[in-house]
Amino acid sequence: MHSQGAIHRGMKPALQLRIQSQLALTPQLQQAIKLLQLSSMELELELNLALESNPLLDLVEVDEDGEPESEDAIPQEFTENSPTESSPEIVDATPDFDDTPLDLGSDRNDYRAAASDEDGIEQQDAEIEDLRDHLLWQLNLTPLSTRDRSIAAAIIESIADDGYLSEPNETICASLTDLFTAAPDEVEAVRHLVQHFDPIGVASRTLSECLGVQLDAFDADTPGLASARLIVQEHLETLARNDRIRLCQKLRIGPDDLDVAIALVRSLTPKPGAGYSSGPAEFVSPDAYARKVNGRWQVSLSPTCQPRLAINDHYAGLIACARRDDANYLRGQLQEARWLIKSLKTRAETMLKVAEAIVRAQSGFLEFGAEAMRPLVLRDVAEEIEMHESTVSRVTTRKYLHTPRGTFEFKYFFSSGVSTVDGGAASATAIQAMIRKLIDTEKTTRPLSDQALAVELNRRGISVARRTVAKYREALNIPSSNDRCRLG
Hints:
By secondary structure, this protein is α+β, with helices and mostly antiparallel strands. The chain is built from 23 helices and ten strands.
């Protein structure tokens, strides 16, 4: 008995935790989470489906000027009208609801399950073709055995966004163990097949191999082909140093023939995946606008982010006189309609709060450009608007802010900081802008090395190491100094 009592006492806290977790993720919270992470195009699709399926929902008509005919449906706009620039006044004309505002960070990871059931959204994303989609499409058109097709699919899923394959064959074999036991030699054979998919050279492991596969596609009588093959196989470093005399000696050819071979090599694509998007492509429509009016920055939502939905009075009035089953159905639809309108209001409020916080933090960027970008992390905004970091994270994904300097994803304004000699911090975006400016003004005959760039940044008060400069330069897709010298 003592043992059983101890077991019951030990199980009770776990049971309570499970109940609390289930209660935290209410249907209303699930819906608000799902809507918050949708892009504007996905939201439009979601609302069209809701309007078709729920008779209690209506789309509010607008007049010729684009304004709602009903004053109750005027979209909210947040403007900087308060006495101080740091605390803009919020003008909210959306009808109030009795329930409290939702902080969408409380659910932690459960929102993924709520979003994964939306077949329409998944299909919309699946229609956008990235590098992996393009390769899988070709795989489906290639006659292969079921075994080789599975191996090819595993290889394609392991290819990086630049088109290269860094996973060893043994790791790919391990990923197939649930299907069958594959040998590294089998993976290698299928990899060579994938390398000849479009873009040719994809799934290569080294630059030399990638360029070599591309050269294999040329006609055998192409001028300079033999010398170009030798260059990519054995002399890429010599080519990067632009040591023409040594190249002529190694290849045993004259300067004119060398020019033909080098031109052929330079016509190749060093990163075959560079022309493809690493994620789903979308038509970008700004979700918010930042404008400077009378010396102050104003932030307002796009009308598309405030869909004008209302309760259909006709169907709502039928509830009282309808039969029991019909009344229950209409009550359920009415509740869902209210939840949707509430969730849309919460989404708009949260998006505006985040956009306002971004504009306040990055006013220097709006005024002077990328070099004035401040360090900004999710926690900074979350603390300012008193919401969870995961809420801010969802708002910053696939949401766009239009500014006088262009339209940027919310995420663009967030970056970590690097310390400066005066005790402050410079954002990674600002440092990247400095690096780009230094490289744009360098002498083409003597490009700046990563170490030289680090020294110059240190001289300007930015404490940054050479390897950090190299990381930022690569993020900007700027070649190394050796490659810039060769390309120049």
